[in-house]
Amino acid sequence: MSEIDTSNLDFIRTIVAQDLAAGKNDGRLVTRFPPEPNGYLHIGHAKSICLNFGLAQEYPQGVCHMRFDDTNPEKESVEYTEAIQADVKWLGFDWGENLFYASDYFDVLYDYAVQLVAMGKAYVCSLTAEEMRAYRGTLKEPGKNSPHRQRSVTENLALLEGMKNGEFSDGAHVLRAKIDMASPNINMRDPIIYRIRKVSHHRTGDKWCIYPMYDFTHSLSDAMEKITHSLCTLEFADHRPLYDWFLDTLQTPCHPQQIEFARLNLNFTVMSKRKLMQMVDEKLVNGWDDPRMLTISGLRRRGYTPASIRRFCAEIGVAKRESRIDMGILENAVRDDLNDIAPRRLAVLHPLKVVITNYPEEKEEELTVANHPKNPEMGTRLIPFSREIYIDHDDFLEEPPKKFFRLAPGREVRLRAAYFITCNEVVKDAEGAIIELRCSYDPASRGGSSPDGRKVKATLHWVSARHAVAAEIRLYDRLFNQANPEADPDIDFKEHLNPDSLQILADCRVEPSLLEATSSDYFQFERVGFFHLDSKESRPARPVFNRTVTLRDTWAKVAAQ
Ligand code: ATP
Ligand code: MG
User: Fold this and answer.
1) How far is the CA of 48 from the centre of ligand 1 (A)?
2) Closest Cα partner for 464 from 382, 553, 383?
């Protein structure tokens, strides 16, 4: 084997590099991403997508197949297959011509099953599910042979044919591989290959009333597609002997190598589709694409970029050992990406009106603001200024404590790219709540520069009251308030939902340019955070923005206290 440098490669990439250098598989590299269309993809799937499609991209001959593992018709649907394809494409990957469905192989798979029966390597078993469990044995005790294990090939072929033809009801019989009921690996104790399910399939309709099981389908689908490296998560390590048994026992075009890696576990969320579906069904979230969900569609709606998710997957890497990744790593990935690419905008979340008393009533002007502080290529824009503006309520305190440098009575601050203003008067309602500030501005400070070198300690964001657009802004926090909501099996993970994960601010004011925002834009609202238009719930003249992530990691601070 020629010497290759694998020092910078993870263990899977090392195996692939070595196999290619050794000329294995005739120099081919074929991976696959095999989702079951029984829900939407989540961030854990993104790890598998980036690995399988990413690996294929790294070699000129690399190919990655998209294959739907659609063998459980009652849980699967066209909606899910379409959503999954859209998500993978959005992440930036392309399977080209290589879109496959396990259901396309149902005929061939059935033929393979007939072959196993003919070889005496599979039999029809008529035990009930309960009996079968009892016969299976335990981790410590071997199983017992089914009384039907000795059925003749002829009888088995006839029964299998009958199963296929719908002559029996659900559960009456199953087809099982004849392997070893005493195997220490329970997966090898005569696993089921086919079961009767009289339900329609979203692609094959009512053609079939028996459906093949995962291990049988998966190994043979891989072989038929001439996959070279079949990458899956660690829980399938115990299934590898069975994967290999099917491929060794049957005549298949090739024998792909199954390699297992650690699945992604992320703090402050749950990852399995089953649990995500529970939250959707129980309306604890607003659908699979709720921006708090760690689904690809949720992250997209929230304002994560495809690049940020790929960056995250590259950062966490691929390893053999299980670990939990901190949510902060995902949040940092999007923060870093958006910091570079997101144009800056002005938006006031808690509007407090400021009247600039020495600014003429009818006057309006347009001020030039840079779209990005470090990237002049992103250009500038004009924002309107007038006598009445809004600043954020949090930027004013009537009795400021020591380290509060923002606006206060008698104090001068800078309005971003506009003017210096000084607060002269605080107007309150009958209950004593502040309703308006009356300020004066220095006309010589236009653009926000100091006219005479005098310094101000704060720069505030603002919008012109007359021109601003009313918007709804949704602030999201982590969906769970426990790092591992599944830690205690006796406590339902939903008990750990964070009641404050969504805060709706219905009465915000944003700069007029944001009326043209689309869902392909990503913004930083200066001093506030990164935001993204919610294209689903925005209305003309009333945009809704989702906070993607805060400017800084506030949870790290909490954790450090
Ligand atoms: P879930 O438990 O969420 O239903 P799954 O494994 O049943 O996930 P599939 O649709 O069967 O979902 O998965 C498609 C591929 O994605 C599989 O190869 C699986 O190993 C991989 N995958 C699923 N979850 C993760 C995860 N958390 N980390 C890495 N890969 C994952
Ligand atoms: Mg699954």
Assistant:
1) 7
2) 383
Nearest CA to ligand 1 atom 9: 35
Collapsing DSSP states into helix, strand and coil, what is residue 80?
A: helix
Q: Which two tokens stand for residue 474?
A: 């949704």
Rounded to whole angstroms, the Cα distance separating 151 from 156 reads 6
Superfamily of domain 266-343+471-560: Ribosomal Protein L25; Chain P (2.40.240.10)
Q: Residue 263 Cα, ligand 1 centroid: separation in angstroms?
A: 8
Residue that the structure tokens 């005098």 belong to = 454
Please say if the pLDDT value at position 247 is more than 60: yes
Dihedral sign of CA atoms 112, 117, 120, 125 in order:
positive
What is residue 506's predicted lDDT score, i.e. its pLDDT?
A: 97
- Is the pLDDT at 558 greater than 60? The verdict is no
Nearest-5° Cα angle at 350, 348 to 351: 70
Core vs surface per residue 484-508: b (16+ CB within 10 A) or e: bbbeeeeeebeebbbeebbeeeeeb
The residues annotated with a catalytic role in the active site are 36, 263, 273
Q: Interhelix angle for 327-341 vs 306-316, to 10°?
A: 140
**Which ligand sits nearest to residue 66's alpha carbon?**
1
The whole-chain average pLDDT of the chain stands at 96
Any ligand 1 atom below 6 A from CB of 233:
yes
pTM passes above 0.85:
yes
Cα(120) to centroid(ligand 2), Å: 30
CATH architecture of the domain 11-261 equals 3-Layer(aba) Sandwich (3.40)
User: What residues sit around ligand 2, an ion, with C-beta below 5 angstroms?
Assistant: 36
Q: Is 32 in the pocket of ligand 1 (CB under 6 A)?
A: no
pLDDT at residue 94, rounded to an integer: 97
- What superfamily in CATH does domain 347-461 come from? Ribosomal Protein L25; Chain P (2.40.240.10)
CB-CB contact of 30 with 226 (8 Å)? yes
